Amino acid sequence: MVRNASWLILLFLAVHALAWQLQFPQAEISNKSIRATLYLPDSDTGYYRGTRFDWSGVIASLCYQGHNFFGQWFENYSPKKHDAISGPVEEFVSEDGGLGYAAAKAGGMFIKIGVGVLRKIDDQEYKFTRNFQLVNPGRRIIRPEKDRVDFVHELNDGEGYAYVYRKTVRLLGNKPILVLDHRLKNTGRKAIETSVYDHDFFRIDGQTSGPDFVVRFPFRPVPANNMNGFAEIHGNELTYLQQLRKGQSISTDIAGFSQSVQDNDIRVENRRLGVGVREVGDHPLSRLYFWSIATTVCPEAYIDLKITPGHEAHWRITYYFYALPAAEMY
Fold first, then answer.
1. Is 52:172 a contact under the CB 8 Å cutoff?
2. Is 98 helix (H, G, I), strand (E, B) or coil?
3. Residue 243 half-sphere exposure, CB side, CA atoms within 13 Å?
4. What confidence category does residue 18 fall into, taking pLDDT thresholds of 50, 70 and 90?
């Protein structure tokens, strides 16, 4: 009787969790290798309504050969929390935090690309942890298909900044490959100068960040900060020395890359599970940051964009999911 009661409790919790997730707009894409669920942007009911990350392309889960590469890595969820988000999500970061932030007075407007027109709270420096009021969400078009989702975000602040941002999350044929294609057209009067990076939030099967993981680069990485005895560099690899516990983190800029696009190529592998993911960008790195806590591994590759009025920038990030050779597994 007790055993049956325990089973019923677990079933109830599983059904409750599924019902909770299904309340948000979402779409599933799949091919013979990958199945992924995406949360779709919506200013009223979307899973993520924060003002830091691009709302397009939030991936709730991605499964390859029975392994899930993304998922909830944070403890407390709120739709407007700045990092209550999952998957290979991107943030656009202008020199002053957002387009027009420094020039705006308290109560004035500025832009976060992929989010909308936001209201400046006060004269403090921009901090991504703050929850700014969304004044103008712009116009969004979402086109889900079997193996892709197309996102369009059109925005005009009425003060000279305007753009059409197109992002496509797609699977490549029947291969274990995920592609993020981007097009950002400047339709305003003011130039758009910004950096954009992909935070990744890798969470392979919910494994704790530690010695089972290795992060590989095509160059010898040089950390700017001491990694507190949690990790070290061996050749072109960042390896963990111990499992991270709650409250512990690695947080550092990484130098050592060149201006060659070949250096925008990062691998994250779990050698106990025997799987990995390779992230390849088609622009040279402008900055590389590494952040990890117990629940996620995040190499953050930045590129710079300068788009004059009437012109358009294109960039692509490709993810290759793979199994490790037996000789490289523990």
1. no
2. coil
3. 7
4. very low
CA distance 119 to 121: 6
Q: Which two tokens stand for residue 167?
A: 């992002």
The Cα–Cα gap between 323 and 39 comes to 27
Contacts of 107 (CB under 8 A, 6+ apart): 119, 120
Distance CA 324, CA 166 (A): 34
Class of domain 91-330 (CATH, top level):
mainly beta
Q: Is the pLDDT of residue 269 over 80?
A: yes
Cα separation, 83 vs 49, whole angstroms: 10
Q: Is the pLDDT of residue 11 over 50?
A: no
Report domain extents, the chain: 91-330
Per-residue pLDDT, averaged over 223-247, amounts to 96
How large is the average pLDDT for residues 111-122?
98
Residue 21: CB atoms within 10 Å: 15
What is the chain's mean pLDDT, rounded? 94
**Residue at token pair 């992909």:** 198
Q: CB within 8 A of 17, min separation 6: which ones?
A: none
pLDDT in the model for residue 10: 41
Sorted by sequence, the CB contacts under 8 Å of residue 186 that are 6+ apart come out as 162, 163, 192, 307, 308, 309, 310, 311, 312
The H or E element containing residue 19 is: helix 2-22
Q: How far apart are the first and last CA of the chain?
A: 41
Q: Are 110 and 99 in contact, with CB atoms under 8 Å apart?
A: yes
Q: pTM of the prediction?
A: 0.92
